[in-house]
Amino acid sequence: MRLHVGCAMWTHARWQGRLLPDQLPPKERLRAYATWCDAVEGNTTFYATPARTTVESWARQTTPDFRFVIKLPKPITHEHRLTGAEAELKAFLEAIEPLGPRTHALWIQLPSSFAPTDLGTLATFLHRLPRLYKYAVEVRHRAFFADERAERLLERVLAGTGTEWVPFDTTTLFQSPPTSDAERDAWTKKPRLPRRSRALTDRPIIRYLGRDATDRTIEGWQPWVAKVTEWLREGRSPTVFIHTPDNADAPTLARRFHDEVRAHLPELAPLPEPMPNEPLTLF
Prior knowledge:
With 283 residues, the chain is an alpha/beta fold.
């Protein structure tokens, strides 16, 4: 029984010297983060395919059971819209190969304009992908959430290749007007869609966005604590990513979420103790 938790990134200016040791060189930051959380979203790969040497560094800094959910590059999903991007996909797959088993899923985040009428394109793309990896799709077109027929058609396409549907739960953010600059910025950028909590595979992935106020973030994730507990009891192995608009306390919140699930399931293994934020001394 294993629950993995993580954040949208492994380095953040407001973590340095407070949650993670200050002055860490870039090649050590993921290693330090991995003592706090055992999963991370690979958002940077959306903007550029990393060099293979960079990915080799990621692998060196993490254990084989650490989970990366790696986003496909923007040229594949948003510019080519899953058609005619064979060269870009080949380069991406070659680059991430050093992660080995750490690649928990390749994450196909589709633009909000990708509609139910595009499902044939998605089905073709998924069937052509190498079976070496598991895949997860995030959609943002409202029809997939408001139209039951569109929802079922998407589920059928995903089920045909054992692909998971990744929900991005922003309902807590949009429950009331923003109260900080970070929340105001999130209001303009994040999708406003209903919460979806149905798993299609044995490895569901949740992206949850709370508020900058810790109590509101915790209050908003209570349905997910119940759902993740249920999934674990069913034998599934979920991964949960905790976001807030400013992400200042995301690692501690991710651990808090894990603790809340573990309160329902004491047999769930605890997370390891995080690295101290200051170097250890003899005195």
